[in-house]
Amino acid sequence: MKKIFLDRRVWRDSRDNWVSFESDPKLKVTKGNIYGRCVPCITNLYQQLKAGKEEIELKEAYHCWKVVAVLKDQEECLEVLREYEENFLGDHYAKGKFGSSLPTKPTKVLMFHVEDEKERDRILEELQTCVKKVNPNSKVFYQRACANLYYDLLGEWKEWKEVTEIKNLNVRSDLLERIKKLLYWEKEG
Question: What is the pLDDT of residue 188?
């Protein structure tokens, strides 16, 4: 039987932030995606903003999804993951994270990362089943993975196309600074 493994290092070092999980004990896909998908994708956005583009070519961001459950706490996240592992993992591969960007938030989220709409829909249905057993009042939904990064610039993710016109040019400089901090880049002189 396949298992879901947690990133123990992250668990130990940041109890109130994010904990990655994956079907591989070394989290190979998650680690590979950080530098193979996420950093290039965010760099692509940065370069387009820097170049003064009036529309953004989304590339990978258009095909990246997250299936999310909003839960009470980390214990509920772990319980839902146990339910998922027991009932749905089978031959499938799972990867994602749980926690919160804001430790003071009263809820935690559990999210699966996917790059395929068919997989997204399957996981949504499976996650809804697991969440109902743990906390029937929890909300389960999906959205584009970087919606929080692109929202102020492009608007509602449901309206995005592979090339999407910028809806709010006023956020360009703030978003450029945010991306530099996100990627740990030095301030440009």
Answer: 47
Q: What percent of the chain has pLDDT over 90?
A: 74
Spatial contact of 75 and 25, defined as CB atoms under 8 Å apart:
no
Domain chopping of the chain, boundaries: 5-182
Average pLDDT over residues 164-184: 92
- Sheet (strand 108-114) strand order: 5-6, 18-22, 95-99, 108-114, 65-71, 139-144
Contact at 8 Å (CB) between 21 and 98?
Answer: yes
Residue 186's pLDDT band, with cuts at 50, 70 and 90, is low
Are the C-beta atoms of 2 and 21 separated by less than 8 Å? Answer: no
CA atoms within 13 A on the CB side of 100: 15
Chain center to CA of 155: 18
Distances (CA, A) of 65 to 28, 35, 41: 19, 17, 14
Q: Looking at residue 16, what is its pLDDT?
A: 52
Q: Find out whether 98 and 82 touch, Cβ atoms under 8 Å.
A: no
DSSP summary character for residue 146: T
Cα separation, 56 vs 53, in Å, equals: 7
Confidence at residue 119, expressed as pLDDT on a 0 to 100 scale: 96
